[in-house]
Every structure is written in structure tokens, then in C-alpha cells.
Design a protein that fits this description.
Blueprint: E1 14-20, H1 28-39, E2 43-47, H2 50-53, E3 62-66, E4 69-73, E5 78-84, E6 94-102, H3 108-122, E7 126-135, E8 145-149, H4 152-158, E9 161-162, H5 171-181, E10 186-194, H6 203-217, H7 226-242, H8 245-262, H9 268-282
Parallel strand pairs: 1-6, 1-7, 7-10, 8-9
Antiparallel strand pairs: 2-5, 3-4, 5-6, 8-10
Helix pairs in contact: 1-6, 3-5, 6-7
């Protein structure tokens, strides 16, 4: 039985999770949750027992000095809580439960059940798991973010894609499925990272995930220096591509394919969506900071944020021999 002493009763809590490893291309997803923890000063209240879920020859503990004393940090998954006093810019409260860790090496079913136990005890109404994958997307265009769910009711309520993916799965997909089978509304957000520049960090992909999270929940997320970091990252990749004619030609072909595919979507709706986000971050809109088409999810509401781009759940990057079971 999970006992949470010292954790206050939460308001409209949403669990947001990300895991380093197979589902975290460019470290985009785990960095997004770390950004939320840092900007909103999340307070860690629980950590899963590393001994239960991690192979220490794969994810090794780290030794460090603290005031002349040697200490060990073990790879694990930690939960923190954020109490957002002014979630929409109009004084409305909304609390987040953040889950950040490393994809477990074993006992995935027990791992998911333990996280679901925390979600139940905290009264979590929605679970959003963020991931990032490698894709044929040019670094010069906006980062595609796809939101998918296995829950038909949630798909209707929030205009999300229903997952049709078949193939090897990472912990992001497994946790989403575990939530759905347990009756907890859950969805995953996937950012596509250019496969030719996959090394971390990728602040542009992190920013795209946080923008989508902001739209889905109707909260104002402080972005700090992420926008500036994203611009600097793109300029750096531009310079690297310019030094190699083959890479530059390949990027141009990706740009042409992307622009052709998205031509029907280059409408006033996309411009209006960006303007609504600008208003939310500045002072909030008259309707409470959400604007049309970006109302936050509530278990008892029919709010519908704008639909994601077509595509279904994307394939996972990396090897195809991971199991996820014991």
C-alpha cells in the first residue's frame, strides 16, 4: 500500500511522465519534464526502488563527493509535485505530478502498476507520457508533435488520434496501455527529431513538446530560455549542413517533401493557434487564457483542443529486440 505523507490534496491533478532511453531521441522528452521541475520548483516526494527495476551494468550508479563525503546516486524514477497557483494567468489553480526517470531494465508490469498506484492515491485525472523518436523531418521546419491514445472516449473528448501502431514498444507505450486498461485516461505526445542530427540536446523538440502540453492542458508554461536555445540550435545545424553539400541537398529534399505534404494545412487556423498561445503567455485571453480550440482537459468536460496532424502513433526508434517483460 502506498502511503503519501506530507503530500497535500491536489487540484485537478495531471500526471506528466518522460523516460530517458529508447523513447527519448535527443533527450527531448526527459528534458521537457526536467524543465517543468526547474521552472516550477517541483518537490520530489517519492522514488521507486532502483533495485527492483534497473540493471546496474546497463544504467550504472554514479559516485560523487559531497562535502568531502563519497556518495552514490542510483538510477531510478522519481515523482515530484508542482502546485501551479496561476495556471491560466487568471489565478486558477492546477497541479501537476511529474514522473522522470530512466526506462526500466526489467519488471515493466510492476513498474507501471507502481506508478498507477501513485496516480490513484493522488487522484490523477489524466496521464500524459512524452516521448521523442527519430524521423525523416528537416531541422529547418517546426517539429511535428503527434498526440495519440488507446482510449476511444479520450480520443473523442480531446480530438486525439487513436493509436494503430503495431510493433516493438518502449515504456511510453506500455505505460499508456497500462493506464487505459486501469481506466485512467492517458495519451502520449511524440516529437519527431531529425535522424541526421539525433545527438542531445534538442531544445527545439523540447520546446515543441511543451507547447503541445500547454495547449492540451490550458496552462501557461514558463519557457525560460528555451526559444532562444532552439534558435541557436537550428543555426548551429544550419552551419554544419552548409559545410557538407550532400547533407545540404538531403535537407532540401526533406524540406520539399514536408512542405508538399503540409500545404493543405497551411491555413489561418495554424496562425490563429500561434496567436492564441502568444496571448496566453502575455496576459491571458478574456475567456480565461485558453482561447477558442485550446480548452484544458477536465474529466467532466467536453473540451476539445485542436486536432493533431494525421499520423497515428509513430514507430519507436532504436533496436527492435526489446521485450519489456521479465
Amino acid at each position: 500500500m502506498i502511503e503519501l505523507e506530507g503530500v497535500p490534496e491536489l487540484v485537478d491533478p495531471v500526471m506528466v511522465a518522460a523516460f530517458e532511453g529508447w523513447n527519448d531521441a535527443g533527450d527531448a522528452a526527459s528534458t521537457a519534464v526536467a524543465h517543468l521541475e526547474r521552472e516550477w520548483k517541483g518537490e520530489v516526494f517519492a522514488a521507486l526502488d532502483a533495485e527492483d527495476y534497473y540493471d546496474f551494468q546497463v544504467n550504472r550508479p554514479q559516485v560523487f563527493m559531497d562535502g568531502g563525503v563519497r556518495k552514490v546516486t542510483w538510477p531510478t524514477t522519481r515523482l515530484s509535485v508542482i502546485r501551479v497557483e496561476d495556471a491560466d494567468g487568471k489565478g486558477k489553480r492546477r497541479d501537476l505530478v511529474l514522473v522522470r526517470g530512466i526506462e526500466p531494465s526489467m519488471r515493466w508490469r510492476s513498474f507501471c502498476n507502481e506508478i498507477l498506484g501513485f496516480a490513484h492515491e493522488l487522484g490523477v485525472e489524466l496521464v500524459l507520457v512524452m516521448g521523442a523518436l527519430l524521423g525523416d523531418t528537416p531541422h529547418t521546419r517546426p517539429v511535428p508533435v503527434t498526440a495519440v491514445t488507446s482510449d476511444p472516449d479520450l480520443a473523442r473528448t480531446m480530438n486525439l488520434e487513436e493509436s494503430r501502431y503495431e510493433g516493438p514498444a518502449g515504456i511510453v507505450g506500455i505505460l499508456q496501455e497500462a493506464c487505459t486498461h486501469a481506466g485512467v485516461p492517458a495519451a502520449s505526445l511524440w516529437a519527431a527529431v531529425p535522424h541526421y542530427v539525433s545527438q542531445p540536446p534538442n531544445p527545439k523538440a523540447t520546446l515543441a513538446l511543451l507547447n503541445r502540453l500547454e495547449d492540451m492542458l490550458g496552462v501557461r508554461i514558463p519557457m525560460g530560455e528555451l526559444a532562444e536555445d532552439a534558435r541557436a540550435w537550428q543555426l548551429g545545424v544550419d552551419q554544419l549542413a552548409a559545410e557538407d553539400s550532400e547533407v545540404a541537398e538531403y535537407v532540401q529534399s526533406l524540406e520539399e517533401a514536408r512542405d508538399t505534404a503540409e500545404l493543405p494545412e497551411a491555413s489561418g487556423e495554424a496562425i490563429a493557434k500561434e496567436f492564441e498561445r502568444y496571448l496566453r503567455r502575455r496576459d491571458g485571453t478574456p475567456d480565461g487564457g485558453t482561447g477558442p480550440g485550446t480548452a484544458p482537459y477536465r474529466r467532466d468536460s467536453g473540451a476539445q483542443p485542436p486536432p493533431p496532424k494525421p499520423g497515428g502513433e509513430p514507430p519507436r526508434p532504436g533496436d527492435t529486440d526489446e521485450d519489456g517483460d521479465e
